Amino acid sequence: MSYLEIKNMCRAFGGLKAVDDVSFSVERNAIKAVIGPNGAGKTTLFNLIAGSLEPDAGEAFIDGSPIHYLPPYRIARLGISRTFQNIKLFSHMTVLENVMIGRHIRSRSGLLQAMLRLPRSRKEERDIRERSMEILEMMGIGDLAGQEATSLAFGKQRIVEIARALATEPSVLLLDEPAAGLNIYETVQISDMILKIREKGITILVIEHDMSLVMNISDEIAVLSSGKKIAEGVPADIQRNEEVIRVYLGEDDA
Amino acid sequence: MAWKKYIPVFALIACIIVFQLAVTAMSREFYLTQLTMAAYYSLVILGLTVLMGYAGQISMGHAAFFAMGGYTSAVITTRDLMNVKGAVLVDLARDLGLTIVEKNAYGSDIEHLSPWAALAVAVVLTAIIAFLIGIPILKLKGHYLAMATLGFGIIVYRIVLGLRLFGEADGISDIPPFRIVGGLAVSGDPALRVQNFYIASFLVVVGVVLLMNLIDSRVGRALRSIHGSEEAANAMGIDTARYKLFIFVLSAVFACVAGVFLTHFNGGIGPSEADVMKSVSYVAIVAVGGMANLWGALIMGVILNYLSLRGYFGSYDEFVFGSILIVIMLFVPEGLLRMENARALARALARLRNNLGADRKQ
Fold first, then answer.
1. Do B193 and B203 touch, CB atoms closer than 8 A?
2. 0.80 cut: is pTM over it?
């Protein structure tokens, strides 16, 4: 069985079948991209995997254990972390604090320990801070630690969101359009970053419209259109696939 | 340095001492009475600030929790147990030393449960009620949550107003003092004004320190993240429903403790403490203090409650708090006393200075 396994996932909104019987799998430590025209159901699929939406039917497994009936916070604890298409950083919190939230599931202090500031929670707090700072340094944004996260430039916010997701020490990272709204240079940076994250042994599932990014970094690509999977394979095959060219890539593209 | 963040706490303690010394020196100790009451109300405000400002969950029914504390203690400590014999619970309380025999206003002996026992019962009861109603209503968001908590507040108000047990419209009076240790007692006795001011101040300082620690911790960050984006918080592995319930219960307990102490200080409690307008004024004070700002809430809580208790707003009291809420929500929804405002000011000054420096170089 593959590391992340999606089986016959379905979800409708009213009469619209946003995700219609989609199945695919992601091998451990692979980078898989999900592409398709707007409204193809890519983000809905992500929300189904991450638990923000409940599927009407279908199953999802991580490393063989089922996750399709779990709430998002339980799925996160099983090692799936994500970013959002329309960035969702925590307002009124610094960049560092945002990343520190990512350490939540890797720490334990409760209400009383926190209020009384017991030694154990003080030590844990120090560890959280240090580990989060390390991640920011690794992502090259250590200098932004003290800034309010939502006041940063768009591109930086994207990186903070990825840093926050990484702070949970995920085994699977879901990236929803990490390059949307970024310029060419930032896109290259993001693509380097994704490759670097994979080197850490993390399995990556990415939704992206930027074809240069997708074709460069993906091991495999799944193509969605109107909620259905219309193709799946290595980048070279997808680029030649006639139906994919017709509905999405276009004749002159790719 | 870790102790640096406690500097405001030391400043607060210094203010408390200086104020008391000044008032005593001017023989104006009667000011302390309303200030003591204002301090207890500020305890409610502090708890509500963490719930509203930091966790982003509104409660329009916090007066209900205050009243629960006050009324529970009032009922328990005014029941005369002198002639109760053979009841298992009462005997148990006697054996545990939880009853007190005192002379009442008419000089006859009465025996009542100790306010310590009352405090414990009030806190446990309030926590359970907050927990039970929190489970369904915290699923609601925004206006719906406001309406649900408002409804809860109205129900508690009507219960307090309608039940013989709670003295109906008269409330409960002749509540004995809360003897803490030795000669230290929470009571309205004018001779004890100074020590009561310090007891209330002590509770406020403890409350502030506990909540400061909480906000700057793993749990506090989780609460604040719910405010920022509940969906993202959930995706980060935070059981947001559980944390919302946590903080709802905690802030209810803060209100309850304030209710217990103020009731013993006043020697009585009436249904107006559970009034919906009371809840509205709490929310107004949190808003004007800057929502996510413990110190702002504390400062505004003390000042506005003090002015209100001294009668400066006269019969316009409700009008004042209502207007404050409207004006703040319309024009400065982030509140008046916010760090951002102070920082923006500091930045503007720094820029000005830099510009001046650059001019000089040219």
1. no
2. yes
